[in-house]
Amino acid sequence: MILICLIAILILGGLLSWFTGRRSNLWPRCISLAFLGVDLILSLMLWSRDASQVKLLPALAPKAWIEEVDWTWVPQLGIHLHLALDGLSLLLVVLSIILGIAAVLASWKEIGEGVGFFHFNLMWILAGILGVFLSVDLFLFYFSWEMMLIPMYFLISIWGHERRVYAAVKFFIFTQTSGLLMLLGILALYFIHHHLTGVYSFEYADLVGTPLSAKVGLPIMLAFFVAFAVKLPVVPLHTWLPDAHTQAPTAGSIILAGLLLKTGAYGMLRFVVPLFPDAAHQFTPIAMILGVVGILYGAVLALGQTDLKRLVAYTSVSHLGFVLLGIFAWNEWALQGAMMAMICHGISTGALFLIVGQIQERSHTREIDRLGGLWATVPRLSGAGLFFAAASMGLPGLGDFVGEFLVLVGTYQQHIALAVMAAVGILTSTFYGLRFVQGAFHGPNSNQWKLPDLNPREASVVVPMAAILLWLGLYPQPVLNTFKPAMQRLEEYAGRSSAVRAHASDSARNEPPTAARNLQEINHER
Amino acid sequence: MSGSDFRALLPLFVIAGTAVLTMLTIAFRRSHLLTLSVTLTGLALSFASLWIAAAVIPRQVTTLLIIDQYALFYLGLIIGATLVVALLSYGYFEKQNGHPDEMYLLLLLAVLGAGVLVVSNHFVSFLLGLETLSAALYTLSAYPQQGKLPLEAGIKYLILGASSAAFLIFGMALIYAQLGSMEFTHLQLAMTSGGSLDQALVLAGLALIITGIGFKLALVPFHLWTADVYEGAPAPVTAFLATVSKGSVFALLVRFFHLTGAIQAPVVLLVLGIIAVFSMIAGNVLGMLQENVKRILGYSSIAHMGYLMVAFLAAGELGGQAAAFYLVTYIITILGAFGVVSVVSGTDREAGTLDDFRGLFWREPGLGVIFTLMLLSLAGIPLTAGFIGKFYIIAAGASSATWGLIIALVLTSVLGLFYYLRVIVAIYDLAPAAVATGISRLRRPSLSERYVLAALTVTLLWVGVYPAPILKLVAAAVKSLA
Questions:
Q1: What is the ipTM of this complex?
Q2: Between 20 and 30 A from B469 (CA), which of A101, A381, A512, B13?
Q3: Number of residue pairs across A and B with CB atoms under 8 Å?
C-alpha cells in the first residue's frame, strides 16, 4: 500500500501544482516540494526498516520483496497492478525523490512561465519513473515506461533552450520506437508463456524462467535490450542524449541524467539478464564491448565540447558505459559496482547540471570560451563545481570512484583487456573534468564577469548532494547491504549454469571478503 | 412481423420515427433548439430501447436483418456517437447564418442507414443501409452554404461514392449470378464446397465488394477523397463521417467476412494484408506532409483504418475483440478531436491551419489539454484509451503471429508520432505572438460543448486506465458473432 502511496502522492501533487499555478507561482513550487518531502520520508522509512532487517538477519537467503502490493487490473488479459520493492528498487526510488527535490529547487527561479504546468510535468515524470522502478508486472512496467515520456517531452519542448523542439521530438521518437520494440518483446514472451502453461500472465515472477530456444530468445532479448540501450544510452543509440540534455531546462537535465538513464540500467539488471539468461550470455561479449566503446567514445567527445552542458551530457555516455560493463560482467563486484555507479552518477552529474544551470542563469551563456575566471567572482559556486567535477573524474573518497573501481575489479575477472581499456576511460575523464573546471572557473576573468554567488536556496541543494557523495565514497556499506539480497535474487533468477557463473561464484565463495570490504581495505591502505 | 421482431428492431424504428418527427417539427416551427431537443430525445430513446431489444436477441428478422449482441453493441456505439455529434453541431451551427435545422434530419437518416448496415446479413440490406447512409452524408458534407470548400468536398464525395457503390453492386451481382442467393451465410457454402461454382467469378465479386468497402473506410488505394472531404466538411460532419460511417461499415465488413468465411481464403488474406500495410504507410507518410489539422486527422484516419485491418486480419477471438475495442477507442478519440476543432473554429471560418491552434493551451487550457489527450490517444500513449487499443491490436497480432503486419504497424506508427507532435508543439507554443494570434474571434465554448468534451475526456481516460468493463462488453459482442 505504501508503494501505491509513493506514486499517488506524486500524481496528486502534480495535479495540485497545476491547479494552484493559476493563482501564483509560489504555490506549485511549495506544493511540489512538500509532496516530494513526504515521499522522501516514506521512502527513508522503508529503507530504515529494511536496513534493520538486514542487520538482524545478515546474509540469509534472498528474501522476497521488502514491500509489495498486488491488485487485479485487467483480468481478461492477466494484467495486475503489481508493485514490489526490493533493495535495487529501493535505492533507485530514494535517488529519484532526492533528485526530484533538487530539480524543484533548481527551477525555482529559472522557470517563470507556466509554473504550475511545469511542476505538473515534473511530478508526473517522477511518478512514471517510480512506476518503472516498482512494477513487477510487465504491462504495468511498459505503461509506466511510456508514461514518463510525455511529461518529459513537454518539459524539454516548452521550457528548453534554443533548439528545444528538435531535441524534444528526437528524444521522443527514439524512446518511443525502442519502447514499441520492447512491447513486441513483452508480448512475444507473454504468448510463449501462455503457450507453455496455458496461463495469461504479465507477472515478472511467472515469466522468469520461461524456457526459450536460442532462435526465439535472442530476438526477444534484443527487443528488450534495444529499448534499454536507447535510454542508457549505448553508443550507436545515444544521439538523442546530447541534444536532449543540452536543450532541457536544468530540472529536465537533472532528471534525464540522474533518473531516466537509470531506468535503462535498471531494465537491463531486472529484465534483460534474469529473463533471458542464455541469450544474454551469448550477447555478453558484444554488450561489454559496447560498454567500453561508450566509455571511451563519451569521454573523447566530452573532451571536444565547447558547450558546458553538452560536455556534461557526453560524460554521461561515458559513465553509463561503466554501468553497462558492470551489468554484463555479472559478478558480485561488477554488479555492486554498477549499482554504486548508477547512484553516484545520478548525484554527481545531476549536481553538475545544476552548477551549469546556475552559471547559465547568471551569465546567460554555456560556452566555455566565453566563461573563465569565475572563481574570483563566485568562489562558492566554483568550489562546488570543482567538487562535483572531481567526483565525476572518479577521485577516490567520493562515490563515483567506488562504483567504477568495483566495475573494473569485476570486469578484470571476465576480460582483462576490456578492463584495461575501461581504465583508460577513467584516465580520460580527468581530462574533461579538468577542462570543465579550468575553462569555467580558472584563468583570467577576461569577460569581467561580476555575478552573484550561491544563495542559501542553491546551497541547500548543492551541499547535501556533496555530502551524499562523500558518504558514499567513504562508507558505501549501507547501500551495498541494501542491494545485496536483491542482487542475489537476480543472480538466482538468471541461474546461469554457464562458465561465467561458475567463475564468479567460485571466486566469491573462496574469498570471503566481499567487494565492499575489499574496498574498505583499499581505502585504509590509502 | 411478430411482436418480438418489432421489439428487436425497436432502436431502428425509433430513429426512423424521430426523423419523421423532426421533419414535421421543422415544417411547423423553425427553432434550432427545438429541433436539437427532438433529435436528442429520439436518439436517447433509441439508445434506451437497446435494452428492450436485448431481451429478444439473437433474432433473425426476415432474411435481411439479424439482431444479436454484436449488432446491439455497434448500434449502441453509433447512436452514442451520433448523440455527441448532434450536441457538437448545435454549438457549431448556432453561430452560422442560414438554416441549421435540416442538418439534424440528415443526421438521423444517416444514422438509420448506419444502423441498418450493422444489423444486415444480406446483400440487399447491406446496399440499402449503405446508400441511405451515403445519400445523407453527401448532403451533410456540403451543408453550410457559404464557402467553396464544403461544396467541393460534397461533390467529390458524391462522385467517388457513387462510383464505388457501382463497383459494390457489380460485385454483388457477380456473386449472385454464381450463387443464386444474396445471404451472407450461403456464400460460405460456396467458398468451402466450390463444386460447380466458378471460383474466379466469386473472387472477382469479392474483390469488387472489397473495393466498395475500402472506399467507405478510406483504405489505400481507395483513399483519395479522404483529406479533401475531411478538410471541406464542417467539423461535426467530419466527426460523424470518421466515426459512425466508418464504424458501421467496419462492423459490416467483419460480419460479412466472418459469415461468408471469405477471410479464410488465402488470396483475400493477402490482398487485405497488402491493403492494410499500404494504408498504414500512406496515411502516416502523407500525414507528415500536411499543414492543416483536419487534413492531418484525415490522413491519420487512413493509417488508423490500416491498424484496424491488422486486428481484423489477426485470426481468432482476440483479433475480433481487438478490432471492436480499437474502434471504441478510436471513436471516442476522434469525436473529441473534432469536437475541439469544432469549438475552436471562429465565427467566420473553421479552425484548420496549425497556426489556429498555436498557443491554444495558454489561451484555453481546458481545450488545449483535451486536444492533447486526444492526439496522444491517436498516437497510442498510456493513460489514454488509444494506448490500450493499440496494445490490444499488437497483442492480437502477436498471438496469431502475423509479425509482418505488426512490425509494419509499429514502424509506421512512429512516423505518425511526427505529425501528432507537430500539432502538440503548436498547442503549447509559449511565444507571446503565438498566444495572441490564432483565430481572433474565438467563440466561448457553449455549456453543452463543455460537457460533451469533458465527458469524452473522462471516458478516454477511464478506458485508458481501467478498460476491463469495456473489454467484457466487447468480448460478449464478438462471441455472439461466432
A1: 0.87
A2: B13
A3: 71
